[in-house]
Amino acid sequence: MNKVLFVAAFMLAAQVTFAQKSEIFAPKGKAIKGYDVVAFFKDAGPVEGADSLSYHYKDADWLFATRANLDAFKAAPEMYVPQYGGYCAYGTSEGHKAPTEAETWTITDNKLYFNYNMKVRNNWSKKREEFIEKADIQWPLIKDKE
C-alpha cells in the first residue's frame, strides 16, 4: 500500500511541476535555447553559447560565447534578460506563452524581444508599441502560469 501511495504522490508532484512553465523560455534547461543573450546587443545577432560558459539565473542555465559576455551578464542580468522571459512578445500581448526562435529577435529601447516565427515578428513589428503595452500588462498575470 505504501508503494501505491508513493507512486500516486510522485505522479501528482510531476503533474504540478510540468503544468507550470518557467518564467524563462528554457527548453532542456537552457535559457533561450542556449543562445548568448549579450551577443544580441554586442554582436547584433544570435550567437550560440558554450556549455563551459554558463551561469544559472532564474531557474535556467544561460550560455555565453565569451567570458566577457558572461561577466557582463553576471554584472547586470536584467539588462540582458529578454522581455517576457524570452517567450513570444506577440503571444504575451494576447495573454499566453509561446516558444520563440532566435532569428526573430528585436531590440527596442535597449530591451530584447523575441517572437514565435518571422511571420509573427513581421506582424508584431507593424504595431510594436501597442503590442508591448499590452504584453507589459499581461506578463505579470501569466509569467508563472502554463
Task: Give an overview of the whole structure.
With about 150 residues, this protein is of the alpha+beta class. The protein folds into 2 domains: about 25-80, no CATH class; about 80-145, no CATH class. Helix content is about 45%, strand content about 20%. It contains 7 helices and 4 strands, in the order ααββαααββαα. It has helices at about 1-20, 35-40, 65-75, 75-80, 90-95, 120-125, 130-140, and strands at about 50-55, 60-65, 100-110, 110-115. The strands form 2 sheets. It has a two-stranded antiparallel sheet. Strands 3-4 form a two-stranded antiparallel sheet. A hairpin with a 2-residue loop joins strand 3 (about 100-110) and strand 4.
What keywords describe this structure?
7 helices, 18% strand, two-stranded antiparallel ribbon, alpha+beta, signal, disordered N terminus, 146 residues
